[in-house]
Amino acid sequence: MEKLKGNLLLLLTALIWGSAFVAQSVGMDYIGPFTFNAARNLIAVFVLIPVVLVFGGRQAEGAGRGLWSRLRPDPVTWRGGLCCGLVLGIASNLQQVGISMTTAGKAGFITALYIILVPVLGRFLGRTISRIILICVPMAVVGFYLLCVNGDFSISFGDFLVFCCAVFFAAHILVIDHFLMCRADGVRLAWIQFGMTFLVSAVLALCFEKVTLAPLWAARWPLLYTAVLSSGVAYTCQIIGQKYTDPATATLIMSLESVFAALSGWLFLGELMSLREVAGCILVFIAVLLAQLPFGSR
Hints:
The protein has about 300 residues and is an all-alpha fold.
């Protein structure tokens, strides 16, 4: 039952992330990538305050009745949130900049390569890998290639940045898993993570972009959508869902983000899907379903 709960939360995470691509694209018409990431994460910090108060786990030792005392995490959760936020801040900003220098299809495929990187990095950390994952990961990669890449596949600097983002997204999943195993509180960890990601993005925005109020106000609806759903809800669901699922399987489930993005474009924007893209979606779905079978580990 706990595994099913975790899988459903991760599936919801992928669905929200996939449907949020339109909002992210619209928001970038008004403000730069660093400013966009800073604003959405700052909003997410405030959105999660009532969630922490209602659903947060244990408080730090000696906490009282004041607001900060009720929000304050224990030392393990502090460290976990700061580490996760630093990694997520690097990954999300690399992705935003990389997307502006390459095609959306190639960026989607290269980002999806983190489904390979998670089990590979996990092996270096001494984690075991289910036998079925060794079949599902290559199957999903082929599916993503069919779904995302059309025409010739050449490598540009933007592609390199997106690949670096995939490495950090893989590291993000493993860092979350590490601190959850250390009994960090998931909701508070997400809250601290957004604060740290905001700081990373804000520093980059102040260094490389002109931050003014008018463009931020013009992008308010995409910012609110991504802050509340994509950041506040989805990343929190990811952290809680990973409590009940191993990193490699969690990665496969969350990789459905690209499939849901394509399906959302077809359903809500009238975008047509070719037979090649449909075949890619089917392959990824099959890979995710096979990953749930109870095969042994190696």
